[in-house]
Amino acid sequence: MAAGNSSSVTEFILAGLTNQPALQMPLFFLFLGIYVFTVVGNLGLITLIGLSSRLHTPMYFFLFNLSFIDLCYSCVFTPKMLNDFVSEKIISYVGCMTQLFFFCFFVNSECYVLVSMAYDRYVAICNPLLYTVTMSPQVCALLMFGSYVAGFAGAMAHTGSMLRLTFCDSNVINHYLCEVLPLLELSCTSTHVNWLVFFIVVGVVITTSSISIFISYALILSNILRIPSAEGRSKAFSTCGSHITAIALFFGSGAFTYLTTSLPGSMDQSKYASVFYTNIVPMLNPLIYSLKNKDVKLALGKTLKSVFF
């Protein structure tokens, strides 16, 4: 903690979701359940895709990476969040900057993985005869490598600009994790560069992701509407349903969170809203991609038979 205005902060206090003692244990068990479900769901999907040769296709390669990101993403802050419900809400300066880096890395990477998945659906529906050639293992690996590199670059920009700041007045972060905007509120040095970096990085990620996904689905929709049979259109739409749902949940909840942050005195509302895209979305993704997916159900049935019989 800061000993005075001339001292630098060596640790932070995470305010968490609430300071009401009566709510700490109910919230602990609620988020423990969400975390267990998230880990089991995403780890199960990763394992299933890895074991089933039926799922060794580009679409499931991207889904494998999405589940991996969601799993790691949840592990970055949820264990600390759970610990804070039952003990002191203290995190070291180094721990906070590390959490910030990995949080930004996985969020940015997930945006680009969703873009890659949109491109995969575009090729599958608009150019099915060239799908195997266009979405070769080399192309898929390159798309994933690019997603992780872009995520790393964004995380380095956010974390690097944060490391140049000095925190000397307050060390209470009004959030349950080390996020960019709550941290900027605590700085006792100029944050102009940080705001510039924030708007550039977020702007680039949102703009490139949104435009790429919009173009992909505009072309997909145009192609689907030209399919003569209703059955053919329905089948084509069904291959995109899960991805569209995942995109709507992730980008919709993220946009709502940051839009509420821009309103005066709205950090508390933003903190509550961020629960949806930090905790709920990673839990829902395995369900979204498996409940109505025949390939996943068949692969799961065969895997369970081979294990128990």
Q: What's the helix count? A: 10
Strand content bin = under 5%
C-alpha termini separation: 58 Å
Q: What is the N-to-C succession of helices and strands? A: EHHEHHHEHHHHH
How do the strands of the widest beta sheet line up side by side?
2-1-3
Largest sheet: 3 strands, mixed
Percent range for helical residues? Answer: over 70%
Identify low-pLDDT runs: 1-7
Anisotropy-based shape: globular
Question: What is the structure about, briefly put?
Answer:
The chain is an all-alpha fold and 309 residues long. The chain has helices spanning 21-51, 58-86, 93-126, 131-134, 137-163, 180-184, 192-225, 230-261, 267-288, 294-308; strands at 11-14, 90-92, 172-173.
Question: Describe it for me?
Answer:
This protein is mainly alpha-helical and 309 residues long. 75% of the residues lie in helices and 3% in strands. It has ten helices and three strands, in the order βααβαααβααααα. It has helices at residues 21-51, 58-86, 93-126, 131-134, 137-163, 180-184, 192-225, 230-261, 267-288, 294-308, and strands spanning 11-14, 90-92, 172-173. The chain has a three-stranded mixed β-sheet with strand order 2-1-3. α1 (21-51) packs antiparallel against α2 (58-86), α2 (58-86) packs antiparallel against α3 (93-126) and α3 runs antiparallel to α8 (230-261). The longest helix has 34 residues, at 93-126. The chain is globular, with a radius of gyration of 21 Å.
